[in-house]
Write a structure and sequence with these properties.
- The protein is α+β, with helices and mostly antiparallel strands and about 525 residues long.
- The protein folds into three domains: about 1-20 and about 465-525, no CATH class; about 30-280, no CATH class; about 295-460, Jelly Rolls, CATH 2.60.120.
- The chain has helices at about 5-15, 45-55, 65-75, 120-125, 135-140, 185-195, 220-230, 235-250, 255-260, 385, and strands spanning about 1-5, 75-80, 80-85, 105-110, 130-135, 150-155, 160-165, 175-180, 295-305, 315-320, 330-335, 340-345, 355-360, 360-365, 365-375, 390-395, 400, 415-420, 420-425, 430-440, 445-460, 475-480, 480-485, 490-495, 500, 505-510, 520-525.
- Strands 1, 9, 11, 12, 15, 18, 19 and 21 form an eight-stranded antiparallel beta sheet that branches.
- A hairpin with a 4-residue loop joins β24 and β25.
- α3 (about 65-75) crosses α8 (about 235-250) and α6 crosses α7 (about 220-230).
- The protein is globular and about 75 Å long.
- The two termini are about 30 Å apart.
Length: about 525
């Protein structure tokens, strides 16, 4: 998957400023120095520092006072009228009518309060995870964990209840999946709750997502899910506005909103890399820009996902020497719902082998900065660090080079470890493939497991778009909840997330194409 956001954000901002799309752009501002105590920490140590920073706050009494606080955190304006912002059912109830009837709208705990026995502690009252909720959706989602669903038994178009996909749910028979628009919102709330309240009396009967014996609290499948949702649904202006409201009402903030990269340094590919505030947008800064630099555009390639049932179809395998008695070195493997690229030449015993797994060709034109990272594991390490490694091939000359991997997994277990960021900026201006070399001998043939690879490129912006050719924007049509557009068009929501145009939820969408005279704004209602 590849994302490019700068041009889209500029188009959406332009349309917002033209009017007719609700509230304007806002930026959250956290106090200068607020997160300085997180500097230089990673993993469980960073998680503890986050808790220490935000755990102390003003506790708001649950009930009438919660609805008063919601006026600062959960109000949306539609056609000049303020409504409670419902993420579970898109219910529009005017704020002017006061506290809603409980048969219509509830105060919902996104992290179910039954998971700690419904004790009315600080977690029960924390507005970070409390939201106005459609009463029916609240009832239907019950105390189920978050997950992606394989089948749906109930939906209102925004909250979906059903059976989880293989490897998800932690053993729960039923789970709930929110609308794509809010998956990142919920992910960052769950990260906050399990960080700040790791020491409350979590029940063992509902431990689908959490593990109280772990310093990181979240079970591996839950870590993977929340990190992916947080990455695929970046922080929105709604969340920034809400975070400012939380600070106003209970005097703390959700750091996972202010510091979008923070979670990766706790549970993700950077869990062994010290976190740095200087690498994070500061108070009021645009997360995509750094003062004093030229405008840039970011491409992010996500490969070998740990929840993908098959290997990326655009990757290729190059076998140089196969082990005796085998037809492969690299293959796609699964255990307990987690998937990875597996390299091994151990077939009853060690054999000599050499094979490569290659990404598709990536253009490094106009690249200023480039980093790649991944997760990997290897229990028995004999030839791993000498014969295996990350490789980069020049797609034009065939030259192969081997950048150094900063962090290797520990021997003795199959625990996945983040590789750390690997700088590929030196390949700027070339067409490359990024991949992995597996090597072994008759004396040593390790098994190397790899997944969740991310290649991030920061380019200079050289142009907004090519306006040559016939303007065919008049061909954009709406059929029910599907947008039909000319070939080559791209469809985004107002937060910059891209869609294929089919089965869209209610909202405003932007259709762009190089030949369009201007972007097309579409309302799905």
């Amino acid at each position: 998957m590849k994302t490019r956001n700068k041009e889209i954000q500029a188009i959406i901002l332009s349309l917002l400023l033209q009017g007719g799309m609700g509230a304007g752009i806002c930026s959250a501002t956290y106090p200068a120095g607020y997160y300085d105590s997180l500097e230089g920490k990673c993993g469980a140590e960073l998680m503890k520092a986050v808790k220490a920073r935000v755990r102390t706050h003003d506790v708001i009494e649950y009930g009438a006072d919660t609805w008063v606080a919601f006026r600062s955190t959960d109000v949306r304006t539609v056609d000049g009228t303020d409504y409670w912002w419902d993420m579970y059912g898109n219910t529009l109830l005017p704020v002017s009518a006061g506290r809603p009837d409980s048969n219509t709208m509830n105060i919902e705990h996104s992290v179910a309060n039954s998971w700690w026995g419904k004790t009315k502690n600080d977690a029960y009252k924390d507005i970070v995870h409390l939201n106005p909720s459609d009463a029916t959706a609240n009832n239907r989602k019950s105390n189920y964990p978050l997950a992606e669903l394989s089948s749906v038994s109930w939906t209102n178009g925004w909250t979906n209840v059903g059976s989880p996909k293989s490897g998800q749910g932690g053993g729960a028979a039923s789970c709930y999946e929110p609308h794509d628009e809010y998956k990142g919102d919920f992910a960052r709330v769950f990260m906050y709750m399990f960080t700040v309240y790791d020491d409350i009396a979590w029940k063992s009967t509902t431990d689908w997502m959490y593990d109280t014996t772990s310093d990181l609290m979240l079970k591996p499948w839950a870590q993977t899910l929340l990190l992916r949702w947080s990455q695929n649904d970046p922080v929105s202006d709604k969340e920034r506005m809400r975070n400012d409201g939380i600070q106003k009402e209970q005097r703390n903030r959700n750091p996972f909103i202010d510091l979008p990269d923070l979670a990766e340094h706790i549970w993700g590919s950077k869990s062994t890399v010290p976190f740095s505030i200087s690498g994070t947008p500061g108070p009021g800064e645009d997360p995509g820009e750094n003062p004093g630099e030229d405008p840039t555009d970011t491409d992010r390639y996500l490969w070998l996902a740990s929840d993908a049932v098959s290997m990326d179809s655009d990757w290729t395998i190059e076998n140089v020497t196969l082990p005796a008695g085998s037809t492969y070195v690299w293959n796609w493997r699964e255990y307990n719902g987690e998937y990875w690229l597996n390299g091994s030449a151990f077939v009853s015993k060690a054999y000599e082998a050499e094979a490569y797994a290659w990404s598709p060709v990536v253009s490094m034109a106009d690249v200023e900065r480039a980093t790649v990272s991944f997760r990997h594991a290897a229990k028995f390490q004999t030839t791993l660090r000498s014969l295996c490694g990350l490789v980069v091939k020049d797609a034009d000359t065939g030259e192969i080079t081997t950048p150094e991997i900063p962090v290797w997994p520990s021997a003795g277990s199959w625990a996945f470890t983040g590789s750390g960021d690997i700088d590929l900026s030196a390949y700027s201006g070339r067409n490359i493939r990024v991949g992995f070399r597996y090597g072994s001998t008759d004396e040593g043939a390790d098994t190397w497991e790899i997944n969740d690879m991310v290649l991030e490129l920061t380019r200079k912006e050289t142009a907004i778009r090519d306006m040559s050719g016939e303007d065919d924007s008049y061909l954009v049509e709406v059929w029910g909840n599907t947008i039909v557009a000319p070939e080559g068009s791209r469809i985004f929501d107002i937060n910059g997330r891209e869609f294929d145009g089919r089965n869209l939820g209610k909202g405003v969408y932007i259709v762009v194409k190089p030949t369009f005279g201007k972007a097309v704004k579409i309302l799905i209602d």
